From TrEMBL:
This is HEAT repeat domain-containing protein. It comes from the Bacteria. It comes from candidate division WOR-1 bacterium RIFOXYC2_FULL_41_25. InterPro entries: ARM-like, ARM-type_fold.
């Protein structure tokens, strides 16, 4: 059965499981799967697109070198109507940013839109992850990313943990002003009743020193 046929017949959690399984095959050496998946991320069936995006994302998590050269081909999929495809591809851009910064930065405007819109928890989460990876590339990128994360901290309180993690990735390239502002956010996190947020805030404070 071809990859297209497999993805057409799978939905929901089954599709997610299939995507992970196929990604493992790629990581074991079957690179033809990832080549086809990259093409299918733009297919005219949402189940196929999302299934292909799952393969791409899972490969990027463990071996972004297999995906990074193809970011330009994946860029149009950030306009997919279903959020699943968008959040997996924006995450792929973040995971691959260090390896292909020239193309990774081209997703920045779309990421800003995702943060500003009522995108939902998963798309917000992966977008913020992308912004953290992008901002960590250089002080110039940090300057561009910081205001977006700063606004997100105020407007999307449910993403506080992910935002603090993004700031932590960028800490080494932040200038003095950004570090001072970030320390205030970290101190707010220290007051949280959630242990996970408090833990991220503690790690961030250490990185800022």
């Amino acid at each position: 059965m071809s990859l297209l046929e497999q993805l057409k017949n799978n939905k929901g959690t089954v599709s997610s499981s299939l995507g992970k399984s196929l990604a493992e095959q790629v990581l074991k050496g079957d690179v033809n799967i990832i080549k086809e998946a990259i093409q299918l991320v733009l297919y005219d069936d949402k189940n196929v697109r999302a299934g292909a995006a799952k393969i791409v994302e899972q490969v990027a998590v463990k071996n972004p070198e297999l995906v990074a050269p193809n970011l330009k081909e994946l860029l149009p999929s950030l306009n997919s109507p279903e959020p699943q495809t968008r959040w997996m591809i924006i995450n792929t851009f973040g995971l691959s940013a260090k390896l292909n910064p020239v193309v990774a930065v081209k997703a920045f405007d779309k990421a800003k839109q995702f943060v500003e819109q009522n995108s939902g928890a998963c798309l917000w989460d992966r977008t913020i992850c992308y912004l953290g990876y992008l901002g960590a590339l250089s002080s110039k990128q940090a300057l561009a990313v910081f205001p977006v994360l700063e606004q997100a901290f105020k407007s999307i309180p449910g993403q506080t943990k992910t935002i603090l993690e993004a700031f932590a990735r960028m800490a080494e390239v932040m200038d003095r002003t950004m570090k001072q502002k970030t320390l205030k956010f970290a101190n707010e996190g220290l007051k949280s009743g959630k242990a996970s947020i408090k833990g991220c805030a503690q790690k961030l404070v250490k990185k800022l020193k």
